[in-house]
Amino acid sequence: MAVEGAPALGGVMTGVSAMSDLAWVPQSCTLPTEERPLRVAEWDALLSQRLTSLSRPQPLRLRLDLGR
Q1: Which top-level group of life is the source organism from (predicted)?
Q2: Structural domain of 49
Q3: Model-level pTM?
Q4: CA–CA separation, 28 vs 41, rounded Å?
Q5: Residue 12 lies in a domain
Q6: What angle do CA 15, 61, 7 make, to 5 degrees?
Q7: 49-67: per-residue pLDDT in tens?
């Protein structure tokens, strides 16, 4: 997922894979295939416009802070 342009993160994040290839979507996903690119675009827009910080308080937990 691209988070380019997130000012508090200094632009491009390292270690984040792009979601342009929908191979990452699990087979159990019930969202119709044709709607998946739209959802990815919505997440990209949200994170690039509103993500102010992120942290990993535990190995399997990621905290995303969204500005208003």
Answers
A1: Bacteria
A2: 33-67
A3: 0.52
A4: 20
A5: no
A6: 50
A7: 999 999 999 999 999 999 8
